[in-house]
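Hey, can you fold this one?
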Amino acid sequence: MSMLRGARLDDASEIARLSGELGYPASAAEIVTRLTALLDDPVHRISVVEAAGTLLGWIAVECRMTLESGERAEIVGLVVSEQARRQGVGRTLVDDAEAWAHALGFATLVVRSNVLRDASHEFYRRQGYMLRKTQHVYAKTLDAVS
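Sure. Predicted structure:
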């Protein structure tokens, strides 16, 4: 039997494991640092689905303020364990994010998905999300600050 609940600091190693499955490796210590900063911040929500002490998935959603678009709610991370996919875990997590965003007064929830993640695109379409745009993401490594 799986259970939806808010993330806790002691979930760090499981969140790190799942992040690695998606191609975003992080140590448990790094996740603890991030959770410490995010868990008590009211503009962030991190939820997990757990079964028998193992996390099956997690979602992170946040309120974001941008100059051009104003305030919006956005799913900034969603991972479901490969073994738990197509069992309703992702739907449960997205439902939780939608309920949170709705309770804060948002009429829309946004999510970005890597163009290479075809299964994710189909998942979001099945949940009623519509493609609004495609984009490129650029990054530049900056010199270390002394």
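The chain has a mean pLDDT of 93. Let me know if you want another pass with a different chain boundary.
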